[in-house]
Specification:
CATH superfamily: 5'-nuclease
CATH topology: Rossmann fold
Helix content: 40-55%
Strand content: 5-15%
CATH class: Alpha Beta
Shape: globular
Order of helices and strands: EHHEHHHEHHHHEHEH
Largest sheet: 5 strands, parallel
Structural class: alpha/beta
Distance between the termini: 20 Å
Number of helices: 11
Number of strands: 5
Radius of gyration: 19 Å
Length: 274
Amino acid sequence: MMSEAGIHVTFDRNVCNAIRSRLRKEKSSDKDVYTEILAQIRAGTIYPYLSEATLTFELFCPEERLLILAAYFACAAERPKLPQPSAKAEQWVRDLLAIGFRVLRGPPRIGLSSSSFINLNQGWAEDLRFPLEKRQERATNLIERFEHLGRSRLERWGNELAKAHGLDRAIHQKDYWSQCPKILWFEGLMAEYQKPRCCSSQKDFFGKLRKIFSDWFDLDAVASHYSYGLDYFCTDETGRGTVGDTIFHPENLKILEREFNVRVVSAEELSRLR
């Protein structure tokens, strides 16, 4: 059962970072909405969660690791070995777990589990409202509604890059990444990484790749939240981007509330709820 003592809130990566940064300022007179949220977490009036998708992105956000993550989704049965998270990333997780955060299992289709590369011990969230089978069904339903924001967007971009580089399905990279099968969209990504043609530089390439993964994992984070039936999803990203790239676009937020009863609030709005 849901506790009547507080509200159950899923936080996105940026708000998690902001709350964690306030751990060093709890006794400071310099207060803001994030210190207020932290105080409510401490008081038990907010029960905090983050999605496994959010955790995965935090562990894999460095540039080279994004390519490994892309290879992971491209390679199917011949997936490359995932790198171990850095000590800094592991500390990020420990700090959040220590103040009460629990991790929501990611949607089944995400293709990897955080438990394979970081030990969460008792950090997993309980199934508070729905059993496992129903929870997975709910996550799948939401993801299918917004399928264009997920993996298919990465594949579309990779295919566009492949076309720009004149690749076809007979061409295959002969380097570290050659363990992957002949998947055109991934070949397009690697061609652009090695010799940018559509992007202004490798830095520009990684920025766009990171944005696609970020938006995709935001979708999976919202799906995780919905699957568990929690009260609010907190992000400060609302209103940014376009309807075709982020789940937090105003038009997509309307769909979330109307069709899935998902209530998305900013940190400022959350701090004023209680």
